[in-house]
Amino acid sequence: DTSHQTRSVSSRAYYSLPNSSHERRSVLAITEPPRFHSQAKGKNVRLDAHSRKATRRNSFCNGVTFTNRPIHLYEKVRLKLVAVHHGWSGALRFGFTIHDPSQMSSEEIPKYACPDLVTRPGYWAKALPERFAVRDNILAFWVDRHGRVFYSINDEEPILFHCGIKVSGPLWALIDVYGITHEVQILDSMFAETMTTARLSTARLSTCLPQSNHDSANFNNNELENNQVVAKIANLNLSRVPGLGTDNHIIPCCPNRRQHAQGVPAFLDTDLRFHPTRGPDITFSQDRMVACTNWQESNRTLVFSDRPLHIGESLFVEVGHLGLPYYGALSFGITSCDPSTLRTNELPADPDFLLDRKEYWVVYRAFPVLNSGDILSFMVLPNGEVHHGVNGASRGMLMCVDTSQSLWVFFTIHGVINQLKILGTVQSSPGTVSPSGSPGGSQYDSDSDMAFSVNRSSSASESSLVTAPSSPLSPPISPVFSPPEPSSSKNGECTVCFDSEVDTVIYTCGHMCLCNTCGLKLKKQLNACCPICRRVIKDVIKIYRP
Predict the structure, then answer these.
(1) For residue 314, how many other CB atoms are within 10 A of its CB?
(2) Are 42 and 188 within one domain?
(3) Which of 312, 273, 294, 348 is nearest to 431 (CA)?
(4) Fewer CB within 10 Å: N-end or C-end of the chain?
(5) Could you tell me if 417 and 496 lie in one domain?
(6) Is-above-0.70 flag for pTM?
(7) For 105-134, how does the pLDDT look when each residue is reduced to its tens digit (9 = 90+)?
(8) Residues 125, 70 share a domain
């Protein structure tokens, strides 16, 4: 089409494709950089005098905005995240629309881009993963002539974000200043390079929220907003009582936050925080007391305590999640490895891969289904037993660890769990180191043998190499068991085969319930445990009678 070739750049339609990089630069040279539309915006959006900066003043929603002009194909809409306030669920939503914002009335602009707008014809938008919603990050997104939307963060490799955009007409950029994203600024445009087949094959595919799942973030934020209103009213009522002042700290700061007074001491030490070394899919609060993960894309989510957990010290953490039926949950572990010696690229998605390292690692996975707001407690006893509780109720022993070394705590956050908050610690006195809620000593978790994995510590003694050394290597008190009755020639049947005579004692628990044949077979099994008390078997010892 020769007429198309001779058409001036200034008269070319926005949705047509500039034929060369020189022509694309010419388009940018004569086209005013995009701005936010001064009229088509949500009721909570405030624009600066130049319409280049959009700020959401209140709430978490009603932040929908559009560009004041259509966007060229391959033109990058570049946004700087000026302010990010954690506490809400979800982050910026962005995409394109074929509808001219100038033709929209304020009543037509809904609270949410997702799902309110994207369920209408001619709107395409998705959520920016929360792990990218970091202050001063620069988001760039564009659409190519095939209707594919890409985005990049800080000019890194592009990510394929959306497909199926209608490019036969003009497209305006759609930007929803949502959730934790509080303020954004439009920067000058740039043109993206054409994605070659080879480069497209390396572009990552964003696995963002399916549009139907945006309802959950909206629900959580609405619930939080209602809780804030209730808390503010309660503060107002308290302020009217003589002698009582208001306490802003009781206003909830995270979604679905429930206060569990039971089982949580009134005064907690807050010197333990998350270590700066963390998985790349984790975002910390400014004080490193809260670890958040973008659950829809997160894989590498290891977090560590910034100091070892003391013997007899109880750690209290609170979990949060979006309440959606996704697989995966919380993992807990103990290690002798100082997190400051690790690098981010060494942290795997599966903590079991850490068991091959030379340090001491123990991983526990089989937590029950947790609700958002549940409070977990963990305590290491002097004999190496690690006990835990949920909302003040003891759940018994998780594992046994080597207390001769400094031990750091670590977690992985997966699936339905998307947030973990350290509430604080309490150091028990020597006479009260038994776990709260455990009457009369230890209560063993009957599933503990199936729930955790251990590796060999570099400082383990040779005898501990017989089996996985998850029990203390040097228990402070040797097991005591009664000698065999001399009046009887039999000492009972083996609890495994129910045939042979019992002639073997289990180390370290001291139970005598196996024949030597079954004991040797059981010892060779991964994470073998005593059939009676479920403690991990370190060794089996045959007893010889006179």
Answers:
(1) 25
(2) yes
(3) 312
(4) C
(5) no
(6) no
(7) 888 899 888 888 988 899 999 989 888 899
(8) yes
